[in-house]
Design goal:
The complex is a heterodimer. Helix content of chain A is about 0%, strand content about 55%. By secondary structure, chain A is mostly beta strands. Classes of the chains: A mainly beta, B mainly beta.
Chain lengths: ~110, ~120
Amino acid sequence: DAGVIQSPRHEVTEMGQEVTLRCKPISGHNSLFWYRQTMMRGLELLIYFNNNVPIDDSGMPEDRFSAKMPNASFSTLKIQPSEPRDSAVYFCASSLRQGQNTIYFGEGSWLTVV
Amino acid sequence: AQTVTQSQPEMSVQEAETVTLSCTYDTSESDYYLFWYKQPPSRQMILVIRQEAYKQQNATENRFSVNFQKAAKSFSLKISDSQLGDAAMYFCAYRRGDTGTASKLTFGTGTRLQVTL
């Protein structure tokens, strides 16, 4: 079975440019999560969706970040404009809604903003 | 709010030996689930083991087992017969049970495990 698929795996961009990260959750999963990992702050939850509806976006750092889930099989995380402090590994993860279910992670998108 | 604490930033173990990674958590919930994830240098987050809070029996997966002490809110990971491939960052994580809506994973800060020859 295919796992959570993220793209791009690596991206290097210049400050001020728009960055779009993409995620395809595991088929049948109805909860989707975006996490960010940095050395300084560890793993942070940015936003999560249930049945394509955002449930909690309190972790989104600022207005430069936005996330969408137009359908059950696709989500995007957009940063506009990007800044060097946005450099991190961004993980998408999915699960069935109920808490007893394991959350499975994609391989991550490594973002470097120069 | 739930919190997860890993007090050991780094641990080291010799190959074939046993090591225990510590984790404590704080919650007022009665229905929850605990997980250990492994993150090797590739940065992939890999599920190692999970424990249901309502189960008294400790979970076991091959060389990996947990010591779940619910009253003490402790959830340690024991790795037996350590292998070089076990070298990684290990994260303890908490998830609330079914709340009628999706629930998130709350992570600890991680423990970096080194395996030496």
